[in-house]
Design brief:
Largest sheet: 5 strands, parallel
Structural class: alpha/beta
CATH class of one domain: Alpha Beta
CATH architecture of one domain: 3-Layer(aba) Sandwich
Order of helices and strands: EHHEHEHHEEHH
Helix content: 10-25%
Shape: globular
Strand order of the largest sheet: 2-1-3-4-5
Radius of gyration: 29 Å
């Protein structure tokens, strides 16, 4: 959802809960799943374009030759005389590659490119140093990965949590059906997880769907835009706390676009800005789009079937492995 990277990757536009299905649909368009998109990683480089170096500086072609050409020795030299030495043009830097007097010099072999990800950021002109690429946080016993959320996490064949269990993981589960993100139990689920074991590296979550359904938050376009902004703020608050606690990655599982009954004409068309915490590099924000994974297999028009949950779980595990997240 953010990554955000916003991975390891470049920034992308951020849209939380835009197409609202029963929430109603995609939670954001910064996807690491079945839609194209990336999350903002720690150390993502957005450097300034390289400017050509000034004339005379290392790496710059020398200026054009001006003035009289160097003297040419006479065709026949008197006996015992030595031809006068020819002095190389002053504008040729002896430390530069190339042939003196050629009139142009190639750039240094290792000329860096701004934003390439393999050069210090000060080279790109930003004045900060690029952290090294993030190493794979590896696979553990599952105790430092938690799941929180609503009925998408828990209902029908155990929801996403049950599917992760069937896939052989031993993550800690705290999801509760029928709860909300704003003023509900989802933030408290995270608190209970910390109280049990504060060593948490990855959080997988859903949330926000019931906030819409229980309040009629998308009865009008204006109300829907306000509801989405409030959910976005609530995610930022929760994820900021996670970042301060040392969580490395959070994955927001989006609701499929065909889940729920929110009218198409009241859904927001303008995405909110990214949750600010996702732009700091303190936590990796990711999202998983699920419409193509659910494939319309909704038990009651809202919740995926067991088979659909299994596909969501497999996609989550693939995302975590490919992104080097703790898993």
């Amino acid at each position: 959802m953010l990554g955000y990277g916003l991975g390891r990757r470049s920034t992308a536009a951020w849209m939380v809960l835009v197409a609202l299905g029963f929430l109603g649909s995609s939670a954001c368009n910064q996807n690491d799943g079945d839609d194209t998109g990336t999350a903002l990683p720690p150390g993502n480089i957005n450097g300034n374009p390289m400017q050509p170096p000034p004339s005379g500086a290392p790496g710059a072609p020398p200026p054009a030759m001006t003035g009289a050409p160097a003297a040419t020795p006479p065709a026949t030299q008197p006996a015992g005389n030595t031809p006068p030495a020819t002095t190389p043009p002053a504008q040729n830097d002896p430390d530069m590659p190339g042939t003196a007097g050629s009139g142009a010099q190639p750039p240094p072999a290792e000329m860096p490119t701004a934003g390439s990800g393999d050069v210090p950021m000060e080279t790109a002109g930003s004045g900060a140093e690029t952290p090294p690429p993030r190493m794979d946080l590896g696979k553990g016993d599952g105790s430092d990965v938690i799941t929180i959320g609503d009925s998408w996490m828990t209902l029908y064949s155990g929801g996403i949590e049950g599917a992760l269990d069937r896939a052989g993981t031993m993550y800690r589960h705290y999801g509760i059906a029928g709860t909300t993100l704003i003023g509900g139990d989802i933030p408290q689920q995270y608190e209970r997880a910390k109280a049990a074991n504060k060593d948490i590296k990855t959080v997988i979550m859903t949330g926000g769907g019931n906030d819409i359904m229980f309040t009629g938050g998308c009865n009008t376009k204006e109300a829907c835009e306000m509801s989405v902004a409030m959910i976005n703020d609530a995610l930022n608050t929760l994820w900021t706390e996670m970042a301060k606690d040392g969580v490395k990655d959070v994955i927001y599982v989006q609701y499929s676009k065909d889940a729920g009954t929110t009218p198409q004409d009241t859904r927001p068309t303008t995405p909110p800005p990214p949750p600010p915490i996702c732009l700091t590099g303190m936590i990796g924000c990711h999202s998983l789009a699920t419409t193509d994974l659910v494939m319309g297999q909704l038990v009651d028009g809202i919740h995926p079937s067991g088979e659909a949950h299994d596909r969501i779980a497999a996609a989550l595990l693939d995302m975590m492995e490919m992104g080097g997240m703790r898993r």
